[in-house]
Structures are given as structure tokens and as C-alpha cells.
């Protein structure tokens, strides 16, 4: 077998156009985003739900990540970033060819392989966020079909229209730095729409749905927060000052939002809610995402205050007053944390976008683009400022209509293949009925145990206590009785 000459091997390993620093950061940023899903949202979903749904909720996230990987390299990447098929969609094609993967990406000094990987984890987390609205009642078989269909017919259209330089909204000059529209607004609207068609959880679950492990929930939330460093810091596709600015703005906005939500909970409910603080953290992350690298620090603080208060109001006040919001069972409140926060972030981006940062990020020289309204009023470019707000609003309307339509069509189509919603008896049982497995081996739900015996001893070897003892005394007294 003939080997390649050394000079050709060296060129393939480090071509002149590639920046090793940029590529290293891009791979790191992509991995941070991947960790937001696996294990971040896997842990968050598995712990924030009722104990009987822990396994199913976590596995919905894990399955979605794996399914999107195959869809992305199989056809969805090129539909999002490839050659033009329609003004809002690229041609389906694989992203697996060696020549293609080693070539320079159209953005940055990185190879296509890094670009495919980075965009892959964005697509994956978007579908997992949709799943948050459907926990506790969607058929797993229906979810298996839903994920590839939604990635193919909804996500690719948003990504091409907004992020691909050939896309119609991109050509108009929409600002979506890292996915406020493509990821969060689309997942929030799609999740809410799918929740409408799937139907609500069992009435008992909807009335009371306590988290099975709040400490573990915080661990998942922490992975989500820290992973956002790669989410927003990786979008310049280079180790640049703009990437540093985006990272800092992300954490400033998120912290401000969390504290704002916390203060509102204390003022109106008298107690600092841990779950509420987590929701405030998420809304801050979502709100800053479309603006992270194109706004200044003072704007990030204002956006954080808005992100911690506006979604709080829609979730805590309006949700109880608007009939449609009360009717739709959105388990993880993705409508408020992602659709509302994403809409808010997109609008505020149109107000606060600093034109120099915008043109730096988009490599544009047209002064009429990427000028926030407040800067337009300050510099006399009023028409440019209003134009930017108009483009942002147009993008929101497009994403909302697209996701309502495509998600509805997908859900109605799946009904012909499999039921969307689990049967009532299955919903009463949970994980064991769906998967034949349970998340925890705890007293009353899994294998019985006693401190008198080691942790691996079989159930049959432990003498059972009298029934009346089981019903009348607690775990500590029960262990004492067995002894």
C-alpha cells in the first residue's frame, strides 16, 4: 500500500488557512454545548420530575441527542448550511465525506468537521428543550418519530433562513448571535404546540408534580449554565475579543436574571424558591443568547433584569389568567422560559445592538444594518434603528408561524403511526410500565433494604416485617424492628 508523502500529510494536519487556536476553541466550545445536553439536561429532566418519571424523562433527552447526531450528518447539516434549494432551505446531502470535512468552513479558520460538530450540538439541545414540555405523558415511540421529523422540517428551515448567509432573513440583516430565534423561540413554540396535541399529564400528576431530587436538579442546571460559555462563546468561530465579550455578557445577564427572579419570589411569595431561581437562570441564559456579542455590559444587566421579571410575570400571573396557557400542560414551562425569554431577547437585541460590534461579528460594512434603535436615535440613524427592530420582529413572526405549522403537521402525522399520548394506566405507573425499569431502588419503589444487611443482598434473604409494622411506622423504626 502506497503511503502519502510527508509534506502532504503535514498539509492535511495543519493547512495554512487553519488556525490551531481557533479550531481548538471551537472543539472545546462544541463539547461544552454537548455537555449541556448530555449529561446536563439528562440530569435536570431526570431530577425535576416526579420519581416515577425520572428514567423516562432522562432517556427522552438522551435518545434525542443520539437521533439528532445521525440526522445531522445524514442530511440536516447541508439543509441548514449547504447549497441553496429554496430561499429558506438548503439541499439535503450527507456531511460525512472526508474531502468535505477537511476543507475550510465558510465561517472562520476551522475545518468543516468542527463546524458540523458545533452546529450538531445546537440542533440536539433544541429538540431536547422541546421534550421538556412533554415530560410525563408522551409516548416514547411517538417521541422517537417526532425528533427526526422536527429536525428535518422545522429546525433546518430556521437555521438556513437566519444563520446561513444565503438565507432570506440573514440577507435582511437579522441579529441572532447564538440562537435566540433558531434554538429558543423555536423550541418554546414547538414544545407548547406539541404539548397541546399530546394532551395533559394524568390529573394527579398535574395537580402535584414534586421534583424527586432538587440537589441533582441544581447539578444539571449548573452544567447548563457553565456550558453556555461554549454556547455563546463559540459563535464568532474564532478566539476573538468578541468571543470574550459574549462569554462575560452571558454570565452577567444570567446572574442578574436569577437574582431578579429570586427577589420577586421573596417579595410576592415570602420564600426564596430554588426551583424559581433555576427558572430565572434559564431565562437569563436564553434572553442574552441572540445579543451576547453585539451588546455592551450595561445592556446585559438591563436584559438580565427584564429576563428575570417578564417571564416571571407571564409564568406566575398571566399563566393563571389566560385560558390557552392554563389548558396546555407544558411540564417544564418551556413556553415561558424559552419562547417568552427568546422573544424578549430578540426584541431587546434590536434595541441595544451596538453597530460597531454588530458589523464586526457579521463582517459587514453596511451602516444601515446591525444598528440597535437606541444607537440609531443617539447617532441620528433613526431609520436604521427602526429597520433593525422591524427585521427582528419579522424573524419572530416567521419562527412562530413556522413552528406552529410544522409541529402541528408532525404531531397529526404521527397519530397515524403511533399514539402521541401514553395510556392512562401507563401514566399511573410511569417508568416501569414504559421501560420495564425504574430509576431508583428506594423503599417502596425498588428493592427493600435494611442497615442490618449489606447493600447487595438479595430481597429474598431479608426477613419481611409484619404488615402492620410497615403501615404504621417510618423507615427508621422499620429498620429497628427488622433488627
UniProtKB/TrEMBL annotation:
The keyword Transport applies. PROSITE patterns: AMMONIUM_TRANSP (PS01219). Pfam families: Ammonium_transp (PF00909). Keywords: Ammonia transport, Membrane, Transmembrane, Transmembrane helix, Transport. InterPro entries: Ammonium/urea_transptr, Ammonium_transpt, Ammonium_transpt_CS, NH4_transpt_AmtB-like_dom, RhesusRHD. It is a multi-pass membrane protein. The keyword Iron-sulfur does not apply. GO terms for cellular component: plasma membrane. Its main location: membrane. It comes from the Eukaryota. The chain crosses the membrane at residues 24-46, 53-75, 116-135, 142-163, 175-199, 211-231, 243-267, 274-292, 298-319, 331-353, 393-418. It is found in: Cell membrane. GO terms for molecular function: ammonium channel activity. Signal peptide: none annotated. Residues 24-440 form the Ammonium transporter AmtB-like domain. Belongs to the ammonia transporter channel (TC 1.A.11.2) family. This is Ammonium transporter. It comes from Morus notabilis. The lineage of its organism: Eukaryota, Viridiplantae, Streptophyta, Embryophyta, Tracheophyta.
